[in-house]
Design brief:
- By secondary structure, this protein is mainly α.
- It has helices at about 1-20, 30-45, 60-80, 85-100, 115-130, 135-150, 160-180, 180-200, 205-225, 225-240, 240-250, and strands spanning about 105-110, 115.
- The protein has one domain.
- Helices cover about 75% and strands about 5% of the residues.
- A hairpin with a 4-residue loop joins strand 1 and strand 2.
- The protein starts with a helix and ends with a helix.
- The relative contact order is 0.14.
């Protein structure tokens, strides 16, 4: 019984670390007890179908290092799941800047900071898509599969893993620009038109006159292209289970 309990605790450490930074459960509105209960449930369901890890022969410091390794693996897996939400936050900032809604910020439950309203809209859209597409269950299945690829205590850093994380970090800007390209294009055209008007009519206050036009046109384009942004978000959300498996493979790969 002691061996099974320690085996459950090692799985609980990875599941708890994953949920601690997972976008849906890391919000401040979600109680810590709920995250702990879900992690305990995930560990309880995964323990019977995984081979028991022999911990009775390990010393205290070896067991502590093992728990630290499992927590680090869970944090890295959860961090990978957050990349798309970092992209959404950045895209919302771009839209807010181009449209002129940076002053109308609201509390973002993911980052615990003030975010422009378009970013909040995209954030809740991503959460609804995550639940509507049943991806939270697929992510749990990918978490269980990670133990077949990366057994307990087998995680370690490698050059391929570092390069993969850097590549995913660099794609945040590219994906955000792709999502907000129509809004950026309309804002650029409006800026160009009013620049020409300022040359033709020097008495015109370009900043004052262009602000309402930029806001109305930007909101109109944001609304008309909202379904395209939803498709972008959906495509990247569907890749989350495969991303967890890919990171698990890199964590278990030989250096």
């Amino acid at each position: 019984m002691k061996l099974e309990l320690s085996h459950w605790f090692l799985i609980f450490a990875r599941a708890g670390a994953l949920l601690a930074v997972f976008p849906l459960f890391s919000a401040q509105d979600v109680p810590v007890r709920l995250r702990l209960a879900l992690a305990a449930l995930m560990a309880f369901l995964a323990t019977p179908i995984l081979p028991v890890f022999p911990t009775n022969t390990l010393s205290f410091w070896s067991l502590t290092r093992l728990v630290f390794t499992e927590v680090s693996v869970g944090l890295l897996l959860g961090f990978v799941c957050r990349f798309i939400f970092y992209t959404i936050d950045f895209a919302g900032g771009i839209v807010g800047t181009e449209v002129g809604l940076m002053l109308s910020s609201a509390f973002n439950p993911l980052g615990a900071n003030a975010t422009p309203v378009p970013g909040i809209i995209l954030y809740w859209l991503a959460l609804m898509l995550l639940l509507a597409l049943d991806l939270h269950h697929w992510i749990i299945a990918a978490f269980q599969r990670s133990y077949l690829i990366l057994p307990i205590g087998a995680g370690h850093l490698s050059q391929a893993l570092v390069l993969e994380v850097i590549r995913r970090s660099s794609e945040v800007f590219r994906i955000a620009v792709e999502m907000t390209a129509p809004v950026i294009a309309v804002s650029f055209v409006i800026t160009l038109v009013f620049s020409v008007l300022s040359r033709a009519v020097p008495q015109m206050n370009v900043f004052t006159e262009s602000f309402p036009v930029r806001t109305l046109a930007g909101l109109a384009v944001f609304g008309l292209t909202f379904h395209l942004m939803a498709q972008h978000i959906e495509n990247y959300l569907r890749q989350l289970p495969e991303d967890l498996v890919r990171i698990s493979q890199l964590l278990g790969a030989a250096t």
